Amino acid sequence: MSVQTSLLLNSNFRVNIGPLAFSFARVRSISDTLEVEPVREGGNNWSVHSLAKPLSAGQKLILERGLLTNPEGLLDMTLTTGSLVYAVTIMVMHHGIMRKSYYFEKGIITKWELSDFDALQGQALYKTIEITHSGLHEVPLP
Question: Is residue 88 within a helix (H) or strand (E), and if so which, with residue range?
Fold first, then answer.
């Protein structure tokens, strides 16, 4: 088996926001963070205990270069600043089979940005969306 076939390439993925499927060229900030607080135990001078504490700041997911293909703009209108999004799933596909999956339950769109308008270039119109979310988790696959 070649190295190319044994690696999981991230070039084929899907992004679902609720029941809707979207196409983005790039997804950034795929991470999960846990904040801990060190606590010293009386009489135990050799180590500290690390206790999990609630997150003090939201985590961000950035979906880049989403292609605007819907001429009516109905799907695009749902992804505006301040919109709540639920059940966001990012699936990494390999030959049509899901190999990795990440999700978060709830988020809010904190920023969106369109590609430059340039009549001389004639390029497609892309959208970048930043979502502050409740925590990204990896889905265990069977």
Answer: strand 84-94
